[in-house]
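Changelog entry: the MarR family transcriptional regulator record was regenerated in this release. Current contents:
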Amino acid sequence: MTDTRWLDADEQRAWRRYLRMQSELTAHLARQLQTESELSLADFEVLVNLTDVPEGRLRVTELAKALQWEKSRLSHHFARMEKRGLVVREDCPSDARGAFVVLTPAGRSAIEAAAPGHVETVRRLMFDGLTHEQVEALTTIADVVLARIEGQTNGA
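Regenerated structure tokens:
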């Protein structure tokens, strides 16, 4: 067992600021979506993933992986969205055990109505206060961290 590598003062400050920023930003985005469009942030994430594919349909397993959700969480959330007419389930013709989550016209309308307010909030809270260089640095930092996480996940 090795000794714990504690964060130094600069790392601790950066880490805590990151956590607070993520929490505050997520809370503001969730409130904005709920207030202006009656969509939860989770609804919006599901709808974004479905609108990112031309046919507006993804296998349940693909959607769960894209969202980093357990299948049971997706199943429960999907059921709530289905009751509201935002998505439907379709059986997979080539795999009796598989199913698709499919965007409905109402779901497409909901995200199209919600997206302008959402992106304006993201722009106002995040990007309007950053320089081009800071945006580039943020992208680089995110890429490095995500690559390290992916390396851990893939056993590297």
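The first strand starts at residue 57 and ends at 59.
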